[in-house]
Amino acid sequence: MAVQDLPELSPSEMRRFGRHLVLPEFGLERQRRLKAGSVLLVGAGGLGSPTALYLAAAGVGRIGLVDPDVVEETNLQRQIAHGHSTLGRQKTESAAQRMRDLNPDVVVERHDVFLTVENALEIIAGYDVVVDGTDNFPTRYLVNDACAKLGKPNVFGGVLRFDGQVSVFDASRGPCYRCVFPEPPPSELAPNCAEAGVLGVLPGVIGALQATEAIKLLSGLGEPLIGRLLVYDGLDLSFQTVDLMKASGCPCCSGRPEDIVLRETRMVCSAPTVGGSLSADELQTRLDAGEPILLLDVRNPPEWAGGTIPGALQLSKPDIDQAVQAVLHEGAAREGTSLAAIPRDRDVVVYCQSGMRSSAVIRELVAAGYEASRLLNLDRGFSAWVGRNT
Amino acid sequence: MATVYLPSSLRRYVDQRSTIAVPGETVSAVLTNLAATAQGLHCHLFAADKLRSFVFVSKNGQDIRLLNGLETPVESGDQIRILSSIAGG
Ligand SMILES: [Zn+2]
């Protein structure tokens, strides 16, 4: 945008952004570029919280938030845009409230939806820069492909345990996410933060770096992190950058952008098969009839402490992941692992909180030799059971 | 000996160390030697002897595909970094 077309700053904006304006490298013009600019944050959770707050505070004119979830207590260990006062509210609404408190002039656009193959292009097309702060591989690949197709820079950030990664994927100027990681890992090798844990401050570190890159891209300041991956190690407290290559055979960006077709990425276990499923009502009926079902609760100890279905065997998904890995890839005997507690000659009803982790566990168990017909996923998990019994 | 750096998710195979010295004249030999010392690590790195598509390896700060891939020569003191894709947010 030509300088004369950039929006003017109001007197209150001049005061609020004074610390930017005194930076000779930044100055009034770049501040006006931020005001003219727009950023889409995909995910308003661990990474999205600090980016949303810092980008609003910095004076970005318009910020879109994509997140279908509501604020839960377990979020508050790291998702600092939310709070106890907004428990149960939409995350986009909760974050928007804090953002407007920091900068009353910011325009916040809420998208309370999952980003999907159907809606991704339409939503992303409306913004200058995309910040990927999602919590799952399928959405990351979707964000990457849609950005490459639309020619939008994608400020990528990922966290797990104590490790973080940041890059700017701009397929028109450098590699994309698929150039570096062509496919997601199989689910038994890819725990998410709920399963593997995350140090609460880690998304703060990585999200703040993503916000830095978004501000640089919008204002034209400095050198964007294109073609480089920044690797953060919270245990060693080290930052390293590695040079990335644009892959000539990249399944996303090696052809013409207009030919990129968005596809749903499915997380698969090494042997994809699924068992059946049953509802909380059906489970109650079968338990009432005295059927010898084994209930398998694959949530984590803190979740077990909050209540469980009486008589359930408690084996967390990370424990099962490790046992399945040992059986599949390390030649361990099933009986020598925690899988020994899961019988093969009875129906096993597997449940987690929502039904997602348990369906992944079922795929893994099938890969480890269990009969798919004996494994049943409890639809919508413990949440549905609690809903039925309250 | 090259110095191999592992992400925290793989350190349980090497007594929770972040770096480990491994012999080998190529990246492929270094990774194979590393996998041989730690049962379970092999499946994280290789599928049918090819580097898995979610594992990224760099030598001295460069994607090994910018060099000569798994056949990239390794000299004493080189830094080999293994990264896994992570999706948490
Ligand atoms: Zn690419």
Automatic annotation (TrEMBL), chain A:
Keywords assigned: ATP-binding, Nucleotide-binding, Nucleotidyltransferase, Transferase
Gene Ontology CC: one annotated term: cytosol
SUPFAM superfamilies found in the cross-reference section: Activating enzymes of the ubiquitin-like proteins, Rhodanese/Cell cycle control phosphatase
CDD domains membership: RHOD, ThiF_MoeB_HesA_family
Highest rank taxon of the organism: Bacteria
Annotated EC: 2.7.7.80
InterPro entries linked: Rhodanese-like_dom, Rhodanese-like_dom_sf, ThiF/MoeB/HesA, ThiF_NAD_FAD-bd, Ubiquitin-activating_enz
Substrates-to-products reaction catalysed: [molybdopterin-synthase sulfur-carrier protein]-C-terminal Gly-Gly + ATP + H(+) = [molybdopterin-synthase sulfur-carrier protein]-C-terminal Gly-Gly-AMP + diphosphate
Enzyme class name: transferase
Molecular function in Gene Ontology: ATP binding; molybdopterin-synthase adenylyltransferase activity; sulfotransferase activity; thiosulfate-cyanide sulfurtransferase activity; ubiquitin-like modifier activating enzyme activity
Function according to Swiss-Prot or TrEMBL: Catalyzes the adenylation by ATP of the carboxyl group of the C-terminal glycine of sulfur carrier protein MoaD.
Subunit comment: Homodimer. Forms a stable heterotetrameric complex of 2 MoeB and 2 MoaD during adenylation of MoaD.
Protein name: Molybdopterin-synthase adenylyltransferase
From TrEMBL, chain B:
UniProt signal peptide: none
Ranges that cross the membrane: none
PANTHER family the UniProt entry points to: SULFUR CARRIER PROTEIN CYSO (PTHR38031:SF1), SULFUR CARRIER PROTEIN SLR0821-RELATED (PTHR38031)
The protein's name: MoaD/ThiS family protein
